[in-house]
Design a protein that fits this description.
Order of helices and strands: HHEEEEEEHEEHHHHHH
Number of strands: 8
Strand content: 15-25%
Largest sheet: 4 strands, antiparallel
Structural class: alpha+beta
Distance between the termini: 41 Å
Length: 191
Amino acid sequence: MYNQLIELIDKHVSLSDVERKVCVQYFEPFQIPKNSILEEEGKVPKYLYFVVSGFLRLFHYKENGDEVTTHINCPPGFITSYSNFSSNKISDENLESITACELLRITKTDLDLLIKQSDAFRDFSIWVFQQSLSYNENRSRELATLTAEKRYLKLIENYPEILYHVPMQYIASFLGMNPKSLSRIRKQVIK
């Protein structure tokens, strides 16, 4: 279960054998069934999650009660409400499993200890949060500048497995459209 995490870290920083063992000590294995809330709005996110397998989404509610999916995670990778987790502030987002998931999780306190103990983990942690910022900036830009069809095409080009594991209503919300629009776009693309 830890191999994917260690491999990802090793792609970006060099870990010693001691650092690998410390990583295993701080990241806790966690499994969750599909359609389960891991983190609730109105609370400070407790964990940073590394997704070994399965799909998760971040979402919030509009004033009218409609759900807005802001992020869908494809394994392997990290997910949490990053700004709230790192600043220890209450989040307005929910983190939900879309499928059954195998995860590794770490608390903010343990992450801070790990970063203090290891320059490699500090550097990797900085890289993870930079990736999150970059992802959110690109996503905002794409929502503002790309047509709905281009957003869909880009999603299936970069993350085709989403189509097989994530319900269409979540994909539509994530792409900033309603399910009927997504259905129409999918029919046009398939032709």
